[in-house]
């Protein structure tokens, strides 16, 4: 790790390194579950479903997993989250090479039917960079400098700009996109998918089996609060988010183990 690594100081924040070690142990144990050797496809399908439902719920669209599985839920946010979850395996290879394009694709999948077609896949101008005339920018107005620069920063990190463990990188990608809100509509679904892609592309979770979104949903008040704390940019705020994220990873690993047990029992 070089001294210029922008995320290296995160490892020195109080309690982050031990939390990272605990999360990695849980992940490694869950990914060794014997059900994955013969029934990995069934486990992956169920994890994808539960993660999509949890992600939509975190954006305020909560529906029982059983109803979504039965195909009776037409909520467009849920449907978008399902499309995103299905696409993650096909986008993982592209994520480190063309992250801006992948983010645009995630937004198209998540927001179809929710925002105007000319906004799909296009970063929007933030309210705090609206022209002084007070007239809201239209779809042809480029994103403000803060949005563009921070998206560039996220892209640089994803493209190899850091050597910190993928769990920490995924946490930062997730929180940055939540704070930045670069796209109209269900931005949380996009942010959580980007974090999942980070873990898949890095090989930490190569098959996308960790139900981290379920962990966030189980601790939703903490998720919201720590994401807001991260957005302040203070060391304590960043530390709060990282600790939450790593806890959600542990819960996601536990969910994987539960699903794998269920699949094995029903095989």
Number of helices: 11
Structure class: mainly alpha
Mean pLDDT: 91
- Kindly estimate the percentage of residues that lie in beta strands according to DSSP: under 5%
Order of helices and strands: HHHHHHHHHHH
Main beta-sheet strand count, sense and barrel state: none
- Using the CA coordinates, give the radius of gyration: 18 Å
N-to-C CA distance? 45 Å
Question: What coarse outline follows from CA principal-axis ratios?
Answer: globular
**Share of residues in helices:** 55-70%
The strand count comes to 0
Spans with pLDDT under 50 lasting ≥5 residues? Answer: 127-143
What do these coordinates show?
- With 267 residues, the chain is mostly helical.
- It is built from eleven helices and no strands.
- It has helices spanning 16-31, 35-58, 65-70, 76-91, 99-111, 145-161, 166-180, 187-202, 212-218, 220-231, 235-266.
- It is globular, with a radius of gyration of 18 Å.
- The termini are far apart.
Summarize this, please?
By secondary structure, the chain is mainly alpha-helical. It has 11 helices and no strands.
How do the strands and helices of this protein lay out in sequence?
Layout: H1 16-31, H2 35-58, H3 65-70, H4 76-91, H5 99-111, H6 145-161, H7 166-180, H8 187-202, H9 212-218, H10 220-231, H11 235-266
């Amino acid at each position: 790790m070089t001294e210029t690594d922008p995320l290296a100081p995160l490892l020195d924040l109080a309690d982050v390194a031990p939390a990272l070690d605990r999360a990695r142990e849980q992940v490694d144990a869950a990914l060794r579950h014997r059900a994955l050797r013969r029934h990995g496809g069934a486990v992956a399908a169920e994890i994808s479903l539960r993660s999509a439902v949890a992600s939509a719920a975190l954006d305020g669209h909560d529906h029982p997993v059983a109803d979504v599985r039965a195909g009776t839920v037409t909520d467009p946010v849920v449907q978008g989250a399902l499309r995103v979850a299905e696409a993650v395996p096909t986008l993982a290879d592209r994520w480190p090479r063309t992250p801006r394009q992948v983010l645009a694709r995630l937004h198209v999948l998540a927001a179809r039917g929710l925002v105007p077609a000319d906004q799909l896949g296009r970063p929007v101008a933030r309210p705090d960079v609206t022209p002084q005339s007070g007239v809201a920018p239209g779809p042809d107005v480029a994103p403000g400098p803060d949005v563009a620069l921070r998206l560039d920063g996220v892209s640089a990190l994803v493209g190899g700009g850091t050597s910190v463990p993928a769990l920490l990188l995924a946490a930062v990608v997730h929180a940055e996109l939540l704070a930045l809100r670069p796209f109209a509509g269900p931005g949380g679904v996009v942010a959580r998918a980007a974090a999942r892609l980070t873990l898949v592309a890095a090989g930490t979770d190569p098959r996308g089996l960790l139900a981290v979104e379920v962990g966030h949903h189980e601790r939703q008040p903490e998720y919201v609060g720590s994401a807001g704390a991260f957005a302040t940019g203070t060391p304590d705020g960043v530390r709060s988010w990282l600790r939450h994220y790593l806890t959600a990873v542990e819960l996601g690993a536990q969910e994987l183990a539960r699903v794998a047990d269920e699949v094995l029992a029903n095989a």
